[in-house]
Design brief:
By secondary structure, this protein is of the alpha/beta class. The longest helix is centred in the middle third of the chain and has 20 residues. It starts with a strand and ends with a strand.
């Protein structure tokens, strides 16, 4: 009788005399049995049953857990959950930031009521999910990552830790929830859902499509996109908001220095007939920078970007805006860690970056929620997923041209409350390439834009 087991991140099918489709398993002559990825576990079970084969299954022990969370879903959240159930409890739900994707995840956990692993890209999101699980179900979840290896009935893990521990934990969970699931398309991280045997899978993201076209990888390992709504379709559940772009003038010295470096960069592009129409073009430029001339152009690009992103005029405007919104909850976004700390020191507000330790990452948001502090400076680490329900003002001092990043930063201030009017300010240096960056990231974001296009 065939025996199914799990070993070293693979499903082993021993003592099977028939043939298994090549896309499902391959025969390993070294151990004289079929071997398959964990993601294929449900398909292997289906294949053997439909083939009329009796077998022993030792791949995983599915454990029921008692959950009594009181979860009330909005109509579109209920619809998303029902679509997920209709597709065999597999697939990705695409909703904008602030739409309550975590809430849908809680409902999915309760619907399955079996051991669950929640994957997140950052420590900050891990902390948030732990708090939500505890509040919803009244239990303390486990944690894999951030220096801990504590497996429980509901466990939250960073992507990196789940990758490193995949062979150990790969067959211990029935439900796999991937927050910011677009990360799993990368060559390294896709190994996580490939190795884990979880028969039920839910992906959550605000932006499913990727510039590299690798979203098809997500379909293979998590299930395809099964539900999607944009800001316009859930408008009634978001705070009223405005986006204002404020042009910032460079000083004469700053502009002269910017133009000098920008000319070096542009001359190199023209000489080598390069264009910058997307990430793939920039990657081509980076690959060409191994020559002395290319390295000079790369340094010039970086320096011109630093001048545009971090001009003194931006600091002066930031001071004006923070004074204007004194007493409101403000998030200040920078593209790089150094600028976030500069803002922190200049305005005497705490900063959260990738360098911030675990205790501070918990303490600062808690103080923000409690009103003990009213402003936080941050770099890219808070772009994804972290909730600041009371925040009503976002000031983007600098950022990339990514629509995903812009939507995520906007979403930080869209949690609704009575009478709330949110505003996002973009500080964009005039007569520089930053205007093009601003135009690219605004694409796909609905109206309500004040102060330029």
């Amino acid at each position: 009788m065939p025996v199914l087991s799990y070993s070293g991140g693979s499903i082993l099918i021993k003592d099977f005399d028939g043939r298994i489709p090549e896309d499902l398993a391959t025969y390993d002559k070294r151990i004289s049995c079929y071997r398959s990825l964990g993601v294929n576990y449900p398909r292997i079970i289906t294949f053997l049953r439909e083939s009329g084969v009796k077998f022993e299954d030792h791949v995983m022990e599915r454990k029921r857990i008692e959950l009594n969370g009181k979860i009330s879903l909005r109509p579109y959240q209920s619809q998303a959950l029902e679509e997920w159930k209709k597709y065999g409890m597999r697939g990705t739900i695409v909703l904008p930031t602030a739409a309550g994707k975590t809430h849908i995840g809680m409902a999915a956990i309760q619907a399955i009521s079996e051991k669950t692993l929640i994957l997140v890209p950052t420590i900050d999101l891990m902390i948030q999910w732990k708090r939500r699980v505890s509040e919803t179900f009244g239990i303390e979840p486990g944690q894999i990552g951030g220096g801990e290896h504590d497996e429980r009935d509901i466990t939250i893990s960073t992507y990196d830790s789940a990758y490193l521990m995949a062979e150990k934990y790969g067959n211990r969970f029935s439900l796999l929830i991937a927050d910011e699931v677009h990360h799993l398309a990368s060559e390294k991280l896709r190994m996580i859902p490939q190795i884990y045997t979880a028969p039920f899978r839910m992906g959550l993201t605000a932006t499913y499509e990727r510039t590299d076209g690798l979203q098809n990888v997500l379909e293979q390992v998590m299930g395809g996109k099964i539900f999607e709504l944009g800001y316009e379709e859930i408008d009634e559940y978001l705070a009223d908001y405005t986006i204002a772009r404020i042009p910032i003038e460079l000083s004469e010295d700053e502009y002269a220095e910017y133009q000098r470096y920008h000319d070096i960069f542009v001359s190199y592009l023209r000489k080598h007939r390069m264009t910058m129409r997307g990430p793939w073009d920039f990657e081509k430029f980076i690959r060409s920078s191994w020559t002395p001339e290319g390295r000079e152009a790369l340094i010039a690009w970086r320096r011109s970007r630093e001048i545009a992103f971090n001009s003194q005029g931006k600091m002066e405007m930031l001071r004006t805006l923070m004074s204007k919104h004194r007493g409101e909850k403000i998030l200040v976004f920078a593209e790089d860690t150094e600028t976030a700390y500069t803002i922190s020191k200049e305005f005497l507000i705490p900063a959260i970056t990738y360098l911030t330790d675990k205790d501070e990452r918990e303490k600062i948001p808690a103080m923000f929620r409690e009103g003990k502090i009213t402003a936080i400076a941050t770099s890219r680490v808070l772009d994804e997923g972290v909730d600041f329900p009371d925040a009503s003002v976002a000031i983007v001092v600098s950022g990339s041209g990514s629509m995903r990043q812009f939507r995520q930063r906007l979403g930080r201030i869209l949690r609704p409350s009575d009478g709330k009017k949110a505003i996002l300010y973009e500080l964009v240096t005039a007569e520089t390439s930053e205007y093009g960056v601003s135009r690219r990231r605004r694409k796909g974001v609905p109206g309500r834009i004040d102060g330029g296009t």
